[in-house]
Amino acid sequence: MPQEVSISYQAVKSKVYKLIDALVEGGKTEAEVQESMRRWWSLIHPADRPVAQKYVLMVLRKSNASLGAMSEGLVVFKEFKAVREPASEKPPKLHPVTNQSQFSSPI
Question: Which residue in 1, 37, 67, 106 has the most C-beta neighbors within 10 A?
Answer without folding.
Answer: 37
